[in-house]
Amino acid sequence: AVYAEVALPEEHRVQAAGFGLHPALLDAAMHTIAFHDRDEADAELVLPFAYREVALHASGASALRVRVTPSGPNAMTLDLADGSGAPVASVGSVVSRPVGAEHFGTAATADRMFRVAWEELSIQPDGTTAEPVPVADAEDVHRLVTTPETSPPDVLLLDLGGGAGGGSADVRELTGRALRVVQTWLDEPSLALSRLVVVTRGAVAVREADPVDPAMAAVWGLMGSAQAENPGRILLLDIDQGTIPTPLLPALLVGDQHQLVLRDTTCFTRHLIRVLDVPQPGPGGLEDAGGTVLVTGGTGALGAVVARHLVAVHGVRSVVLASRNGLEAPGAAELEAELVKAGARVRIVACDVADRDAVA
Q1: Which residues, in sequence order, are bridge partners of residue 268?
Q2: Of 101-115, 180-194, 300-314, 346-360, the least confident
Q3: 3-class secondary structure per residue, 140-190
Q4: What is the DSSP string of 63-119?
Q5: 3-state DSSP assignment of residue 9
Q6: 142, 184 contact by CB (below 8 A)
Q7: What separation in angstroms does the CA of 339 have from each of 63, 126, 287, 300, 316?
Q8: Cα–Cα dist 206/88, whole Å
């Protein structure tokens, strides 16, 4: 048998109460399997494949005592206890399977790349009518629920107009207004059964030649997140005309597509398709650029991985790592030494890239 003790870092122990068994703690316990004696002649790699007879006896543990015992060919039994020895969890059998090197090959790029495509959607007026209530800002939404003589509407309509210009001020104004409307609408219990239609113009390009308004495009990105958090409640509609086609709204609202584009009288919905014709990388990549690469958040866990990859794989020889704490960040000095040893020139600077003055 193999015995081990594992524990969450002090700053994460308060999170343990939110789990039956904290996933990081279970993962650390599973690593104990690697310390069990194996036949040196059996050098093949094995990975956990099946878990059997799993039982949770207590929740909220922030530290574990682990016992691993063999239970068969490529199988182990785990017993997990807290600091006092009381049972926390047990796994009757963790069965591992051999994994050959061929399983770690890189998949073809075409298997991993997708692009947005537009598909025509047949939409016809269904004879029903919709009477959406227009709202221009959050105050309009609030007024709907505070006016005694009005009943909550079924559909709210936020028409953001068009031709915002796309400057940074336009983007902030338009996305800010849309966000305030959505937040106010979602916060009103009396509107919980209502739908919101957000109308834009020029937010997306159905054809390559279609102009795109950056401010409207930003609204689509923002509303896409809101749609993911509130499925079925928000309809995004981009049109190329000044008048909203109200007769079509009932048909648009009953469908299962929630990001639609109207061009003339044709309706489009977008979806992802696999990219089959992937251009092969040519000269002029990072290896040939010869310049300096800036990595924001460069001293964090992900930034450090990116920096190492740039230096080791792409041959980048000049790197600037920007983070809020700069050299004061944990592990920053060690990361700098590692990259310098690999042949790179490294500068670590304290800079908040969200602060315009700091970046300047």
Answers
A1: 120, 261
A2: 101-115
A3: HHHHHHHCCCCCCCCEEEEECCCCCCCCHHHHHHHHHHHHHHHHHHHHCHH
A4: EEEEEEEEEETTEEEEEEE-TTS-EEEEEEEEEEEEE-GGGGSPPPGGGT-EEEEEE
A5: coil
A6: yes
A7: 35, 65, 16, 15, 10
A8: 56
Return contacts of 144-147, CB within 8 angstroms, 24+ apart: 144/188, 144/191, 145/188, 145/190, 145/191
CA–CA distance, 220 with 208 (Å, rounded to integer): 18
| Whole-angstrom distance, CA of residue 136 vs CA of residue 177 | 8
Q: Are 175 and 219 in contact (CB under 8 A)?
A: yes
Condensed to tens digits (0 to 9), the pLDDT of residues 208-218 reads: 888 899 999 99
Which of 202-211, 275-284, 333-342 reaches the highest mean pLDDT? Answer: 333-342
- Dihedral angle computed from the Cα positions of residues 263, 248, 199 and 267, in that order, rounded to the nearest 10 degrees: -30
Say how many C-beta atoms besides its own lie within 10 A of residue 295's C-beta: 21
Checking if the pLDDT of 275 tops 90, the result is: no
CA dihedral 143→148→154→156, nearest 10 degrees, is -10
Please tell me the distance from the alpha carbon of residue 293 to that of residue 282, in angstroms, as a whole number: 19
Residues 170/164, Cβ–Cβ less than 8 Å: yes
Structure tokens at 274: 């696999």
Q: Contact at 8 Å (CB) between 249 and 272?
A: no
Label residue 181 exposed, middle or buried (CB < 10 Å: 0-12, 13-18, 19+). buried
Amino acid occupying residue 134: P
Q: State the residue for tokens 């930003």.
A: 218
d(CA 189, CA 183): 12
- What residue has token string 């919101």? 196
Positive/negative CA dihedral, 334, 335, 339, 340: negative
Q: How many CB atoms lie within 10 A of CB 225?
A: 11
> What's the pLDDT tens digit per position in 107-119?
555 567 788 899 9
CB 65 within 8 A of CB 3: yes
Distance CA 197, CA 244 (A): 11
